[in-house]
Write a structure and sequence with these properties.
Elements lengths: L1 E3 L2 E5 L5 E6 L4 E7 L5 E8 L4 E11 L2 E7 L2 E7 L5 E5 L5 E4 L25 E3 L10 E3 L4 E3 L4 E2 L44 H15 L1 E6 L2 E7 H4 L9 H12 L5 E5 L8 E4 L2 E5 H6 L1 E3 L8 H9 L20 H13 L11 E4 L2 E6 L2 E6 L2
Parallel strand pairs: 17-19
Antiparallel strand pairs: 1-2, 2-3, 3-4, 4-5, 5-6, 6-7, 7-8, 8-9, 9-10, 11-12, 12-13, 13-14, 15-16, 18-19, 20-23, 21-22, 22-23
Helix pairs in contact: 5-6
Length: 374
């Protein structure tokens, strides 16, 4: 049982609230959510009349608010780059409500323009007194956020890191970068650099083929949209238990991991892990040449799993230079077992051999892959 401003909240064992009781008007609101915590439908119980009533349904596109349907009809949402609902139009296309915000989420326009609770960066806003905004709190899943003071009302359960000193301010919102970043779950900053949606879609499709997990991006965070093993669309024989376990650990960890998918980065050779941040260069894979080995042997997802094993999730290291004729512990303990389960050839050496014509050769059983020589 948690407490929001002017309301009591019943929290599910997974940490998501499912019921809120407004002590001011005596109403109980039940929210039906998907696996990512997104509100799909609202019901309300009038404590005086003892009557349940359907309130509204929410419609989404790519994890972002698209529309809401209630007894008055359909209203369409228009968002800014942070996912904040800035304009609402009716079925005729006319602007019905306008919302403007200060950088950290406080309403700059009239907060009484409508009763919509989805506000700053698409989060639910609890309104105790609808005539003022100073007591508003945004429900960000793990914590509540007060836009008036630009601070969370409890500490970040993900502790700070020495390489980013601002992260030690455990009440701060996105380390003070409210104009360019969002905090989808009230945890540490998750901000990924993306070269193109197509590159991300390719990576997620490759991960799905190896784990049976259909992933989607919701407010900048990877979540499981569908578990293909549970639905029967894939079998355990078709996926790697090592890859699946590693992916689920990363998704459910209290540690924040970030993923960047870029193009043409001369510093990143295929992939790179810096702390708990993984970067994948999609250009290197579009230029790679495969001889005697399937493409899935060395694609973006394989390098993603390799780099993920370098993070605090596993803490494994590449071999020192004088041992690069061996595959190294990451390949031996993580990536080669994934290949073995999927019937793909193992990587034999960590080092890249035969550098010529701008390409380097990576040796695998039964063949090799030529990759751009950086």
């Amino acid at each position: 049982m948690g407490r929001a401003t002017g309301a009591f909240a019943l929290v599910h064992q997974d940490g998501e609230r499912i019921l809120t009781y407004d002590t001011g008007v005596g109403t109980l609101t039940f929210t039906l959510r998907d696996l990512a915590g997104t509100v799909l439908r609202e019901y309300r119980f009038d404590d005086l009349a003892k009557v349940w009533s359907w309130q509204k349904d929410y419609v989404y596109r790519d994890g972002l608010h698209l529309a809401a349907i209630d007894s008055a009809g359909t209203k369409h949402f228009h968002l800014d780059h942070l996912g904040t609902i800035r304009r609402t139009t009716d079925s005729a296309g006319s602007v019905a409500v306008r919302h403007d915000y200060y950088p950290f989420g406080q309403e700059a326009s009239s907060a009484t323009g409508d009763s919509e609770r989805m506000k700053f960066t698409g989060h639910e806003r609890d309104l105790r007194d609808p005539t003022r905004t100073t007591d508003d709190l945004d429900y960000m899943h793990a914590r509540y956020y007060n836009p008036t003071i630009a601070r969370f009302v409890s500490v970040d359960p993900v502790r700070g890191r020495h390489e980013t000193p601002q992260s030690f301010n455990l009440y701060a919102y996105v380390q003070g970068r409210a104009a360019s970043a969002v905090d989808p779950h009230g945890l540490a900053l998750r901000l990924a650099k993306v070269s193109s949606p197509e590159d991300v879609a390719t990576l997620l499709e490759e991960i799905q083929g190896k784990t049976g997990l259909q992933l989607k991006v919701v407010n900048g965070r990877l979540v499981v949209a569908k578990d293909l093993l549970k639905t029967g669309d894939m079998t355990r024989q078709q996926v790697s238990g090592v890859a699946r376990a590693l992916m689920l650990e990363a998704l459910n960890s209290s540690t924040t991991f970030s993923l960047s998918v870029v193009r043409g980065d001369k510093i990143v050779a295929y992939g790179k892990a810096t702390g708990d941040a993984v970067t994948i260069d999609a250009t290197d894979f579009s230029m790679a040449k495969y001889t005697g080995v399937p493409r899935a042997t060395f694609d973006m997802s394989m390098v993603f799993f390799h780099e993920l094993a370098h993070t605090s999730l596993r803490g494994l290291n590449d071999p020192p230079e004088f041992l690069e004729f061996l595959p190294g512990e990451v390949e031996r303990l993580v990536v080669n077992p994934i290949r073995h389960k999927l019937g793909l050839p193992a990587r034999l050496e960590y080092r890249a051999m035969g550098r010529k014509d701008g390409f380097a050769e990576l040796k695998f059983a039964n063949g090799y892959v030529l990759v751009p020589d950086l």
